[in-house]
Every structure is written in C-alpha cells, then in structure tokens.
Amino acid sequence: MAWYYLNFFLGLFPGLLIRSPRTRRIAERMSLSAGALLILLFGMQLTTNELLMESMLGDTLAALLIATAAASGSILLTYALVVVVGARFKPQPVPAAEVTATQSGRFGIAAPMMLLVVGMILGYILELSPSLGVMRVALCVLIFAVGVQIGTELRTVRRRTGGVRPGSVVLLVGLPICVILGTLLFSSLIAGLLPFSRLECMLCAAPLGWQTLGGPLIMEQQGIRLGNLGFLANLFRDLVSLVLIPLVSRSKHKILGVAPGGVSTMDILLPVITTSSGREYLIHAIWVGACCSFWAPILIHLLSKAMP
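Now predict its structure.
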C-alpha cells in the first residue's frame, strides 16, 4: 500500500495548496481518463477467464445483495449517530455556485457498465489479457488525480466549518465512521445468504462505492473473481443509493441522505443529495466522500491480508 499513499499524497498537497481552477480541471480529466482505461482493461480480463464467465450471473446477484446491505447498514448506523447526538445544529446554507464547483470529475451511473461491456467485447475479439503492470500504472495516475481533487474538497471543508458547535463537530467526525462500520458490518451479515465468506463479502464492500479503484485493486490481491464481485458491488451501490437517498431524506433527519453512497457522495451522487436533503448538507457529503476515499484502500489491504 505504500505506492498507493505515495501517489495519493503527491496529489493531495497540490490540491491543498494550489487554488487555480485549471489544476482541478486537469486532475478531473486525468481521473476520468485513467478510470475509463481501468474499466476497459478490467472488462478485457473478465472475458479471458472462462470460469468467471460461467459464474457471472450468480456473482451479479451476490454483488447486488452486498451493495444493498452496505448502503442500508450505513444508513442505520448514521441514524443511530444522529439520534444520539441529537442533530440540534443548524447547518449554514451553501450558495448554489459552491454546489457546482465541488462536484468532481468521476463517471455517471451508466458509464462504468458501458465501459465494462466495451472492454469485454474487446477482450473477446482480441483474445488478449492486459498485464497487471499496465493496470498498476493506470491506478497510480487515478490515485494521484483523486488526491488533487480531495485536496481541493478538504480546503472547502476547512473553509465551511469555522465556528461550529461541539455537537456539529461530533456529527461531522462520526458520519464517515458510521458509513464505514455500517458497510463492513452489514456486508458481513449478508454472507450467510451467499456462497462467499464473511471476509470476502466485507472485502468486496470495502471500496465504499469506488468501483474504478475497488475492482482492479481487489483483483490484484485476491484474483479476478473477487475483483469482478467488488467492481459490481460498488457499481450497484451507486444505483441502490440513487433509490435510497430520496427515501431517507424525507424523514426529519435529512442528513441521512449523505450515508448510503460512500465515496460517491462527493461526486456523482452530490446533485441527488443536495436536491433531496438540501444544500446545507453539501459539506457533510463532501466530508464523507473524502474520508471514504482515503480509507477504502486501507480497508482493502487489511481485509486481503486477513483472508486465509
């Protein structure tokens, strides 16, 4: 994991220090390009593995269950936190211009699946399996670019959190913890219904919604079948979150809208969150997404090491 965090912090510091919008746009293009390449290569890997193709349907259903469990667990633990803290704070409204400015350059919901299908078609036609070295280079570029983007998001968080009350601070710190613990706990509980162990289900949920990183990184450490399961589980988490966010935001605890998405709360799910919960929860969505982006690779690494 040293190579991951070396690249991450190489990107994080420019994101924190450089205020030029051009730097952010370059990082977004790098992130999109590297992510697209990773998904294409991953799709090519899938079609060159006959055993994996035979188990694709069952693994797809398993991924959907893991995604649903992870998103639901995040909501339930976040609800417990909100009840304990009391949620007596009043978030400051965020100008509409800031909502647009904080969206990062990641994929829409449909794009990853389309890229995966294209990669599978190319793999089938070319009968070529890409090397892990090429995927590692693409991962390094993606990680560096995301580090830059998270640096800019954290600068926004720092600017927007001045002078808040202690209850608000506890809630802000506790949100990503509840999302992470809810993801791991409930994904392990769903293992009883699936042909996978508890650790395998937790590993596939560990990317916390970051499919472009999760699939290739899990494949590198645990093989292509679990890599495919991890990619699908985190892709489906975005889809499940799209359904759940408007539902949970109807309650008196509108902040629950930031819970189901994990990493994606700071990018592709941000418009849904601000529409359903309100712009005043933008800062919480950015914070949860940034924290999940930081911890996802650590969780993947630790759970991979714990597996027999």
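Residues 2-306 form one domain.
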